[in-house]
UniProtKB/TrEMBL annotation:
It is found in: Cytoplasm, Cytoskeleton. The lineage of its organism: Eukaryota, Metazoa, Chordata, Craniata, Vertebrata. One of its GO terms (molecular function) is microtubule motor activity. One of its GO terms (biological process) is microtubule-based movement. Belongs to the TRAFAC class myosin-kinesin ATPase superfamily. Kinesin family. PANTHER family: KINESIN FAMILY MEMBER 25, KINESIN-LIKE PROTEIN KLP-3. Residues 15-42, 104-167 form a coiled coil. One of its GO terms (cellular component) is microtubule cytoskeleton. Keywords: ATP-binding, Coiled coil, Cytoplasm, Cytoskeleton, Motor protein, Nucleotide-binding. It comes from Pleuronectes platessa (European plaice). InterPro entries: Kinesin-like_fam (IPR027640), Kinesin_motor_dom (IPR001752), Kinesin_motor_dom_sf (IPR036961), P-loop_NTPase (IPR027417). This is Kinesin motor domain-containing protein.
Length: 599
């Protein structure tokens, strides 16, 4: 065997090795390419599947939305049908009631005539037999009995009618939102030209397109027009008169005498028509008395309706007191206080039963609607006003007119409501023994003024607080006068500081107004979302109106909006607040559990 290896042999061996390596690499590349092709195929497969799944999911979502929309439409249609059914029943009942009333009157007349005849006959038939007279007397007695029966049926029908009325109001919810779009007025044009923002700013963009829908054309330069729709319980257009607006508010005044607290609140941007809606037009806007009457707003018309309803009740059974407050720069002022400007400021407190109260607030007794209006008109001069670029007679404060009605003989519905709210108060403060005099006193103080309470405690003295049921007689729920209140609120206008053109102290006023209105919006938001804490105390306005907004009072928010492009941002903000308020109603159908059954 040679000791050295031939170089050619070494090369040949290396070439052989390299060729072998190359072959195995090529095989590996082939293998990887095959794997790659398989993976591509799998990927394509997955993509097809994914697209298919996505399509399925979209289809399912569309189907779900369609189903949901259909269910919503069906519910809405059902509710409308139900409401119209209730309206029809109400109509039928009122017809039946009319027939009963005339029948009872006829029967009464007939029995009177018969009685007269009997008397005549008995005097002329002294000689006739006693049997005939007895027979006639029996017939008269039978007629009198049937008359009594008819009267009783009449009473029952009247009560049922009242119940139905409240059911209709309740079906519409405890918080109702109405919207009023005012007409384009001369100052809309003047302001647009002076502000230099071009003629487009006076263009009409907010429309009442039906009885319950408002449409806003949102115009943005270079963008197609976008229409936004808002639905409310009732929408009034520029052509709707003050009477038409009040017609929709009127049922709430009936509820007031049935034991409900009622609050009617006008909300909107400055110059949008809140004072016009609540009070009526400023005296300089209308010339004749007839015209002035036709222009009367919700407050004078509500007062007139209230006194009309009271006049149908037994004389002296109801008394009315008025109080007027103003929330200015987050302070509450009693505008009826006789102790001069300096001492009119008042506090708002929360009582042990969770209601808000203004201690030492002045209440003036009133006997007619004109008396109410005289008082309000005389003190309205004290209300803070300030001309702004938007509105020359702009109100800088929130005005709250309260009519408190005391009834000595409340009807059955009102009594049932009183029992309910007493029960609720007890549930609200479970830690207290409800029969404890301390607790009763606190609760009663919250509900009734001190003079009334003194009278009731004087009639039922209890020497010392005790923790066991008190055997001494106490005023029953039906004995103390029954009180309900009607709060009529004309809010100050929300506004954009830049647009109002105010400075200095007026700027502070605008900031206080805007803060209190955003506190109101926060409260509505918290209620709509059913948050555990409702921030009533963030502003005096919400603290003062706590019972009306979150309690079981019937609240009507009257949104006032300007129709022009210039105020479209503010109008959209107001419409948004109205939508929020409606969500409170949707989320909390509070009356369902409280439905009254008075038979
Ligand atoms: N529906 C309407 N029809 C006719 N005129 C109206 C209507 N609404 C408002 N106006 C007029 O527009 C002007 C401004 O209205 P109003 O004083 O009620 O505004 P406002 O919302 O109370 O403003 P502010 O919050 O600044 O006090 C008034 O001259 C009023 O007469």
């Amino acid at each position: 065997m040679p000791l050295f290896i031939n170089r050619d042999q070494i090369f040949a061996h290396q070439v052989h090795l390299l060729e072998h390596k190359l072959r195995s690499k090529e095989e590996r590349i082939l293998e990887l390419e095959t794997e790659n092709a398989i993976l591509h195929l799998r990927l394509a497969d997955c993509l097809v599947k994914l697209r298919h799944d996505h399509e399925e999911e979209t289809k399912a979502m569309n189907h779900h939305h369609q189903h949901q929309r259909q269910a919503q439409n069906e519910t809405r249609a059902g509710l409308t049908k139900l409401l119209s059914g209730v309206q029809e029943v109400k109509q039928d009942l009122s017809e039946v009631f009319g027939v009963y009333v005339s029948f009872a009157a006829e029967l009464e007349e007939q029995s009177k005539q018969l009685l007269e005849k009997v008397e005549q006959a008995s005097s002329s038939m002294k000689g006739h037999s006693g049997d005939e007279v007895q027979d006639l007397q029996a017939r008269v007695a039978a007629l009198e009995r049937s008359l009594e029966e008819e009267k009783e049926r009449c009473r029952t029908e009247r009560q049922r009618r009242q119940e139905l009325h409240n059911t209709v109001v309740e079906l519409r919810g405890n918080i109702r939102v109405h919207c009023r779009v005012r007409p384009v007025l001369s100052f809309d044009h003047v302001q647009s030209s002076t502000s230099g923002s071009g003629p487009a700013s006076s263009e009409e963009v907010v429309y009442a397109i039906s009885d319950d829908t408002v449409m806003v054309n949102c115009l943005k330069p270079g963008m197609p027009v976008q229409n936004k729709m808002f639905e409310f319980e009732r929408v009034h257009g520029p052509e709707d008169s003050q009477d038409t607006v009040f017609e929709e508010v009127k049922p709430l005044i009936t509820s007031l005498l049935d034991g409900y607290n009622v609050c009617i609140m006008a909300y909107g941007q400055t110059g949008s028509g809140k004072t016009h809606t609540m009070m009526g037009s400023h005296s300089s806007d209308v010339s004749s008395t007839v015209e002035q009457e036709a222009q009367q707003g919700v407050i004078p018309q509500a007062a007139a309706e209230l006194f009309r309803l009271i006049s149908e009740k037994p004389a002296g059974s109801h008394t009315v007191e008025v109080s007027v407050m103003e929330v200015y720069n987050n302070d509450v002022y009693d505008l009826l206080a006789k102790d001069g400007q300096g001492n009119q400021r008042r506090d708002v407190i929360t009582t042990s039963s969770g209601t808000s109260q203004v201690p030492s607030l002045t209440h003036e007794p009133v006997g007619s609607a004109s008396e109410v209006m005289q008082i309000i008109s005389s003190i309205l001069k004290l209300r803070a006003h300030c001309p702004t670029l938007v509105h020359t007679e702009s109100s800088r404060s929130h005005l709250i007119v309260t009519l408190t009605i005391s009834s000595k003989s409340p009807n059955a519905l009102a009594l049932a409501r009183r029992l309910q709210s007493a029960k609720k108060d007890m549930q609200r403060s479970p830690q207290k023994e409800w029969w404890s005099p301390r607790c009763r006193r606190a609760d009663l103080t919250a509900r009734y003024p001190s003079d009334e309470l003194l009278a009731s405690s004087a009639s039922s003295p209890c020497p010392s607080p005790c923790l066991s049921p008190c055997p001494s007689p106490r005023p029953s729920i039906s004995q103390a006068p029954f009180r309900t209140k009607l709060q009529l609120v004309d809010l100050a206008g929300s506004e954009c500081v830049g647009m109002s053109g105010v400075t200095g102290a007026a700027l502070w006023e605008v900031s206080c107004i805007n803060r209190s209105l955003s506190a109101l919006s926060d409260v509505l938001g918290a209620l709509a979302e059913q948050r555990p804490h409702i921030p009533y105390r963030n502003s005096k306005l919400t603290h003062l109106l706590q019972d009306a907004i979150g309690g079981d009072a019937k609240l009507l928010v009257m949104l006032c909006v300007s129709p022009t492009q210039r105020y479209v941002t503010e109008s959209l903000q107001s419409l948004g607040l109205g939508t929020r308020a409606r969500q409170v109603q949707k989320e909390l159908p509070r009356r369902k559990s409280n439905t009254l059954k008075v038979k």
